[in-house]
């Protein structure tokens, strides 16, 4: 799980543009490898490398959806629930802090 592994460096995770793009897309909805490849315009091999990196760190998880009408199953990726919860909590704290300091929330 993302929160329990103190060795994860969020700056390392977010320092790579491809990983940031993957996370931006997955924040909207789950996606499979070919969708990410088309959207980001990076090779499948590179996308897969980043997906494995993110999955090993518990930031994303995957699930299989059976194909319909004889099509092969697809492996979808999504952001792990604990990461989404952390993201919402951080946004809420930043909003509160900004409003308290007289600024505008996110």
From TrEMBL:
GO molecular function: DNA binding; DNA-binding transcription factor activity
HTH arsR-type domain ranges (all copies): 9-91
Top-level lineage group: Archaea
Keyword Plastid in record: no
Keywords recorded for this protein, A-Z: DNA-binding, Transcription, Transcription regulation
InterPro entries in UniProt: ArsR-like_HTH (IPR011991), HTH_ArsR_DNA-bd_dom (IPR001845), HTH_MetalResp_TranReg (IPR051081), WH-like_DNA-bd_sf (IPR036388), WH_DNA-bd_sf (IPR036390)
Matching Pfam families: HTH_20
Protein name: HTH arsR-type domain-containing protein
Organism: Candidatus Marsarchaeota G2 archaeon OSP_D
